[in-house]
Amino acid sequence: MKDISVSPFTLVFQHAGLLSAAAIMNAVILTAVLSAGNSGMYASTRMLYTLACDGKAPRIFSKLSRGGVPRNALYATTVIAALCFLTSMFGNQTVYLWLLNTSGMTGFIAWLGIAINHYRFRRGYVLQGNDINNLPYRSGFFPLGPIFAFVLCLIITLGQNYEAFLKDTIDWGGVAATYIGIPLFLVIWFGYKLAKGTRFVRYSEMTFPDRFKR
């Protein structure tokens, strides 16, 4: 099998002579893809709506319909998603691959942020004299858990295209396509901090819900 777009499950059923089973498998895969797309559309729409409500995106996306649906955010998300998908149908799919790699990279960056936030939350909570047993959910592997998660995600993030640096001639185009999400994230993050004048919150300045204190 040289074509990576062919499903291995479908190929097995075809060689076994079970053509109907192959069709069923295709239907199952299609259902899974549609489900993933639907959940992604919902999450993206609500994320844009929440950013607008927090003043971090244009206010037009914070408007709701009578049924409580953020239509403007939904329309914007749908249009952008459609345009991103259409890039796969033109040229040699370079733009599409860049977009795909960017979205994948931001997923790892998000997990890096989760690990950092978990560590800082627990540290700040304890340093302010609160009892860790008051938290409804506690990680039994703290602080090793978030540290391990951070290191692992960092290795995966930076090592996604490490083989490009092992060749005699570095494929800078491939390197850029793989790691474009990192500088994009840094530009947006530092740009927001400079524009809004935000700063890191110290452990002593962290605030926690009253029901979790002492």
Explain what you see.
The chain has 214 residues and is mainly alpha-helical. It has two domains: 1-90, no CATH class; 92-214, no CATH class. The protein has helices at residues 8-15, 19-53, 71-86, 94-127, 144-158, 172-179, 181-196. The chain crosses the membrane at residues 12-37, 73-90, 96-119, 140-160, 172-192. It is a multi-pass membrane protein. It comes from Klebsiella pneumoniae.
What secondary-structure arrangement, pairings included, does this model have?
Elements: H1 8-15, H2 19-53, H3 71-86, H4 94-127, H5 144-158, H6 172-179, H7 181-196
GO cellular component, one term: membrane
Protein name: Lysine-specific permease
GO molecular function: amino acid transmembrane transporter activity
Assign an overall shape.
Answer: globular
Flag low-confidence runs.
none
Number of domains: 2
Largest beta-sheet details? none
Order of helices and strands: HHHHHHH
Q: Class by helix and strand content? A: mainly alpha
Short description:
By secondary structure, the chain is mostly helical.
List keywords for this structure.
62% helix, 214 residues, 0% strand, 7 helices, mainly alpha, globular
